[in-house]
């Protein structure tokens, strides 16, 4: 001071910690149409979570249509905040097709059923893994094929085969015996 006198002043500050949030999983890969749950932690007792859009629980479940990142803001009991994120990669599912999807055959006939749209195929009958199978059902049946692509994503297609029974043919005749060259008999079929 100008008069040569001095004094010391002090103030105490409390330094509060910031949270150290994490999101699990931090990175994940799913097939299109799969639900993903992200779970945050690190708020501590009395802390809060905010994913945006009114989602304030520790966990959030989403159905992503494309690659995306979800970010949560974590606030601890001191009012200090930090953020953490979880990312998801969305792989496409195959467009599983089957031909014919509906067919009608006669009993005893064989039908070729062919699938397309994937890298590998798994049929519901016989453990077949080719894209085409031959079936010979005795009754109306449904065949399933699971088509899997290079991303290990799968889709299912079905083929319904209706089996019609064969007729039971017979012959009606107007006479059971005739004289050679003198008589005729009328024959008619049925069935």
Relative strand content:
over 45%
Which strands sit side by side, in order, in the main sheet?
2-7-6-4
Strand/helix succession: EEEEEEEEEEEEEEEE
Radius of gyration based on Cα positions: 38 Å
Mean pLDDT: 92
The assigned structural class equals mainly beta
List how many beta strands DSSP finds: 16
As a percent range, the share of helical residues equals under 10%
Shape: rod-shaped
Give unreliable regions as ranges.
none
> What does the largest sheet look like?
4 strands, mixed
Distance between the termini: 127 Å
Quaternary structure type: single chain
Features:
4-stranded mixed sheet, mainly beta, 191 residues, rod-shaped
Structure notes:
The chain has 191 residues and is mainly beta. The chain is 0% helix and 47% strand. The protein has no helices and 16 strands. The protein has strands at 22-24, 27-31, 36-41, 48-50, 59-62, 68-75, 81-91, 97-99, 102-106, 111-116, 120-123, 132-135, 141-148, 154-164, 170-173, 187-190. The strands form 5 sheets. Strands 2-7-6-4 form a 4-stranded mixed sheet, with no helix packed on it. A 4-stranded mixed sheet has the order 9-14-13-11, with no helix packed on it. The chain has a 3-stranded antiparallel sheet with strand order 1-3-5, with no helix packed on it. The chain is rod-shaped. 17% of the residues are buried. The mean pLDDT is 92.
């Amino acid at each position: 001071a100008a008069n040569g006198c001095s004094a010391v002043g002090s103030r105490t500050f409390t330094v509060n910690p910031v949270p150290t949030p994490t999101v699990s999983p931090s990175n994940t890969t799913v097939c299109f149409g799969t639900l993903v749950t992200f779970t945050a932690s690190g708020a501590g007792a009395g802390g809060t979570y905010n994913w945006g859009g009114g989602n304030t629980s520790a966990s959030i479940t989403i159905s992503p249509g494309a690659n995306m990142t979800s970010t949560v803001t974590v606030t601890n009991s001191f009012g200090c905040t930090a953020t953490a994120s979880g990312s998801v990669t969305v792989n496409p599912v195959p467009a599983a097709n089957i031909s014919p999807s509906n067919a009608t055959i006669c009993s005893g006939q064989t039908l070729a059923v062919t699938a397309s749209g994937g890298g590998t195929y798994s049929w519901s009958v016989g453990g077949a893994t080719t894209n085409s199978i031959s079936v010979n059902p005795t009754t109306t049946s449904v065949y399933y094929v699971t088509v899997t692509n290079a991303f290990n994503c799968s889709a299912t297609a079905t083929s319904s085969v209706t089996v019609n029974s064969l007729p039971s043919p017979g012959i009606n005749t107007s006479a059971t015996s005739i004289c050679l060259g003198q008589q005729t008999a009328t024959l008619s079929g049925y069935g």
